[in-house]
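From: lab user (bench 3)
To: helpdesk
Subject: output format question, protein + 6-O-phosphono-beta-D-fructofuranose

Hello, I'm new to running complex predictions and I'm not sure whether the block I got back is the full result or only part of it. Here's what I submitted:
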Amino acid sequence: MRLSLRFILPLLVVLAVFAYAVLPVVDGLTVRWFMRDLDIRANLIANTVREPIAQSIRIGNTERVLQALTRITEDERVYGVAFCESPLATPLAAGTLPPGLRCADLSAFTDQPGHILTSEQGPLMMSVRAIAEDNRAAGDLVLIHDMSFVTRRSEETRRYVFALFVGLGVIVSLLTVVIAQLSWRGWEQGMRALLRGEGLLRAANQPDVPEFRPLARDLRELIRDIESERRPRDEDHFAWSPEALRAVLHNELRGQEVIVVSNREPYIHMRREDGIEVRRPASGLVTALEPIMRACSGTWIAHGSGSADRDVVDRHNRIDVPPGRPGYRLRRVWLTKEEEAGYYYGFANEGLWPLCHIAHVRPTFRTADWTQYVRVNRHFADAVVREATSPDPIVLVQDYHLALLPRMVREALPAATIITFWHIPWPNPEAFAICPWREELLDGMLGSSILGFHTQFHCNNFVDTVDRQLEALVDRETFSVSYRRELTAVKRYPISIEWPLSADLTATSVEECRSAVRRRHGLPDNQAIGVGVDRFDYTKGIEERLRAVEHLFEQSPEWIGRFTFIQIAAPTRSGIEEYDIYQTRVRTLVDRINARFAATSSLPAIILLSAHHEPEAVHQYYRAAEVCMVSSLHDGMNLVAKEFVASRDDERGVLVLSQFTGAARELAEAIIVNPYDTDQCAAALRAALEMPEREQRARMRLMRGLVAEFNVFRWAGRMLIDAAGMRKRRRLLDRLVTSDARKEQVSLVDQNA
Ligand code: F6P
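Helpdesk reply: Thanks, we reran it on our side. This is the complete output you should expect:
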């Protein structure tokens, strides 16, 4: 109302001033119009009586003149009438004349416009008209008209004009109030859209505010300035550590609890003959997230897949981990065999995995698998909602197994900050369109506040896919998607590993690791070793790598018997036909290559270790090797490359790295190869084996510097800092919305009253 009064009051003042100025003008005009009318009447009367009066004067019959004058006074407007034969004569009069009227005074008024006289009865108008016959002057006719009716009319007119201005004031005020309110609401909506980061893009059911456009850029800049002033930047923490991450959580997110949700659990309890064994799975996701959870505490929700998992949890299916030095809580979700088959093996790993990797294995999509995928996502979402201790938790959703979960959680906890990280590549829109449930998946993912990928290329692919598949607004300047009136920021967060490595992993010296590994495999002390560490997966390019080793021996036979390649391949996803076929093919290939060079040397060319290895064992191989080869055909990041670099505190060893990994964008000092190019890969292996120590050191130092600076705490820290910024902006918006809602409540109360 205060806003409307600001418009109305000045308007009413202007109208009042205008009315005040207009009234005398209208008054003057009315008098002038009436005087003109009376003049015309005077002429008419004079013309009518001219002849009889002139004739009566000529014959000296003043009686008839008086009769004519008396008839004239019968008109109610005529106050009095007189006839002067000459200036010296006494006027012949009828009706009432103003006192002191003399014929001698009339000559100045003859045939002039009426002259106003004042009297006790009000204003009078005197008109004097010459009466003549045959151009002979007979005298002057004096007509006195009553003007008091003009005063009355003028007052009436004044009243009408006043009423007109009041009416006008009311109508214009009402219109102003309505227009002001509508415009203000439009402005508010526009402002909120900008604060939400939606720019000027708005949903079809919302009116656009074109007047707001010029302000959009200024406002965006202002918000950016405010945020950059208030927000910690990741450069503020040059050395990202668990402490720095905890500080972000504490200072920026008010110590809010973090809930991680993933398919794979960080600790698997397995039943063995001699008791229960705890395993750490071969998983980049676990490698990255586990140190984060140790730093932040909170709850990690995951599928309980171990044979003894149920035996160790409490009645809420929770267990504190890591075993022996608890730092956070693991909440297990149980799946039936059918659910696991459809959701994990089927939809996730026979459908989405090959779809996103484009590694020459056709994706398979089955409706039954999709049904289980939806069902299991619902199980996980329910667990998140149950574990949340506040209405606005920070939920970190991991990977392609849980694409529907962000939307499900958003519906249950609208104020949650949901950060989804997609650990695998995102294909181009054409490839993604193969999936029959593409829209549902995108809808699910866009329940997130932030969606993270390893590379900008994958962010671009995702945004292009949304643009192609959904009715969503895509802002390529801020890289965000506005969908179902919610905003999702799409951002690049290259994942990494813990730095520095846990002391357990580097406790054994490089020399000891070298001899232990060589001793274990019956290799001489001076045997050069190459190492590959992967899940036994067709995307990892293990066949291509082994062919490169074979080709190295073909090209440089001097290395036969002096170099052995040890491939650790952790069993994975067995039961999926493509994996079984692939693993059999690799085993056959290893046998063939070994048999081929067995004649030249008794030492094996390739050692395939198809078994699970705990991190300590894997790091022993990293530290023992001259070269580590990562030849993935397509990989979101590949943390093996970073782990190898981190494990080499002796600054020795060479990394051969596929150009199709996210890691290749960061580790430029590796020897970058195309895994499909066997010649190039063999040459890279040879270059690595023959690389001078100084060059190895120089390359390794640079790569270690990068992994140290861009470690996993920075990865998580950047996401949490961005989440904190979003939460602040949301709180600001909520305040705006709340004050709006409060206003609405007040107006409702007013109406009810
Ligand atoms: O690379 C994708 C991914 O989910 C990783 O996050 C993880 O390292 C790996 O696959 C593990 O796969 P799984 O959980 O099927 O053993």
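A quick orientation on your result: The CA atoms of residues 54 and 133 lie 6 Å apart. Let us know if anything else is unclear.
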